[in-house]
Design goal:
Belongs to the cyclophilin-type PPIase family. This protein is mainly beta. It has 2 helices and 8 strands; from the N terminus they run E-E-H-E-E-E-E-E-H-E. Strand 1 and strand 2 form a beta hairpin.
Length: about 160
């Protein structure tokens, strides 16, 4: 278990468990939103609708189309100098930098061209092989999904 259970997210994917160390030091508003949605069960059963080998796996849209989000207000950007490296978790958004809501992505490989343009809110500390195992595609023929998302302190 991570050092700070209140800032640890446990995703149970259909490919296996993934532990994410949350980074409130980088993005306090985004971390609060991720925890709020996880505690509401929002992510449970949601698919990874865009999984690009060598780049990233994107999920967090309850419609599974990449066009949806939660009913909560969009977040103000919290860009940082934290690089988008393998295992980094960051928020997806539209062309508007302040449009992140519930969708996020996990980097398969380094994607530093995204630095300072997307909000980094966490990093995978365990189970990256289970992210790697997600079915690929845009969308995948049979998308992988989040079975449950829980804050470790609640488990």
């Amino acid at each position: 278990m991570a050092a700070d259970p209140e800032n640890t997210l446990i995703l149970t994917l259909d490919t296996g468990p993934v532990v994410i160390d949350l980074r409130p030091d980088l993005a306090p508003g985004h971390v609060e939103r991720i925890k709020e949605l996880a505690r509401e069960g929002f992510y449970d059963g949601v698919v990874f609708h865009r999984v690009i080998p060598g780049f990233m796996a994107q999920g967090g849209d309850p419609t599974g189309t990449g066009r949806g989000g939660s009913d909560k207000p969009d977040l103000k950007a919290e860009f940082s100098k934290e690089p988008h490296l393998r295992g980094v978790c960051s928020m997806a958004r539209t062309n508007d930098p302040h449009s992140a809501n519930s969708q996020f992505f996990i980097c398969f490989d380094d994607a530093t061209f995204l630095d300072n343009q997307y909000t980094v809110w966490g990093v995978v500390s365990q189970g990256m092989e289970n992210v790697d195992a997600l079915p690929k595609g845009e969308p995948p023929r049979t998308p992988g999904k989040i079975v449950t998302a829980r804050v470790a302190s609640d488990v």
